[in-house]
UniProtKB/TrEMBL annotation:
The lineage of its organism: Bacteria, Bacillati, Actinomycetota, Actinomycetes, Propionibacteriales. Residues 18-259 form the NADP-dependent oxidoreductase domain. Residues 1-11 have a biased composition (Polar residues). This is Aldo/keto reductase. It holds the Pfam family Aldo_ket_red. It comes from Kribbella lupini. The keyword ATP-binding does not apply. InterPro entries: AKR, Aldo/ket_reductase_CS, NAD(P)_OxRdtase_dom_sf, NADP_OxRdtase_dom. PANTHER family: 2,5-DIKETO-D-GLUCONIC ACID REDUCTASE (PTHR43827), NADP-DEPENDENT OXIDOREDUCTASE DOMAIN-CONTAINING PROTEIN (PTHR43827:SF3).
Amino acid sequence: MSAAPTVTLSHGSAMPRLGLGTSPMNDDDAERAVATALELGYRLIDTAENYRNEVGVGRALKGAPREELFVTSKFNKRWHSVEGARTAFEASVEKLGLDYLDLLLIHWPNPDQDQYVDAWRGLLALREAGLVRAIGTSNFKPAHLQRLIDETGEVPEVNQIQLSPIWTKQENRAFHAEHGIVTEAWSPLGKGSDLLDRPDVVQIAKDHGKTPGQVVLRWEIQLNVVPIPKSANRERLAQNLEVFDFELTDEQIATLSALDGTGSAPADSDRSGH
Ligand code: A2P
């Protein structure tokens, strides 16, 4: 099996168009899943301070050719300052056993705390110092992104948001496209919903001889979204990477997009975050 194709971020990094999410896995589960994923051809591995599994992820990364990996981490709100971002970076790379990160994200904007612009200035300094190759945000709404742009003149390279056919996030994607921000999707399979059992999804999967999970991931790929499905199961890990050999029709894309809003409400980053 070959690695996923890549998309070029605004500062030049090549980011795989699909990766492995590791929440919620503990150190041991993450070590096993990441080791299997690397064997299968995954190159983008997504972790976070908050998942408490960076040590396990790091154990699995040992021995893999560093230049082939694309390792992402994220930090919590207590580090929302210039110095804090540096401290959070140092803690992550120490746990991961790395000396640089491919992508570091502000995990949640936490607008009540109102320090995410300082966190962003901290990320800019880390990128300037060559310690992180690319920088971005997670769970930022267009208004939060606009504020970063207005106050620093610098645009995040990636924004990772909760996105799947039941939450298509059209407005967010339009804003990202307008500003050259790559959209990454967490819970791309609609975890916690019945998305993969929906008759439309099942029928489209049958039409292509694929599984419902593969169809949903393919919908994201065709929308230029980078999905990071989590799986602890070897077969599903393999399946989730095999989404670059078929194409959904415009009608099938529209059918899947029409599921927007049919699940419970997604997380609201103006109200929650850590
Ligand atoms: P498992 O780890 O047993 O494979 P998300 O990434 O949207 O949060 O979804 C993750 C959940 O979906 C996990 O519970 C995972 O379980 C399951 N999952 C991952 N890949 C697939 C797939 N291809 N088909 C069905 N379920 C999947």
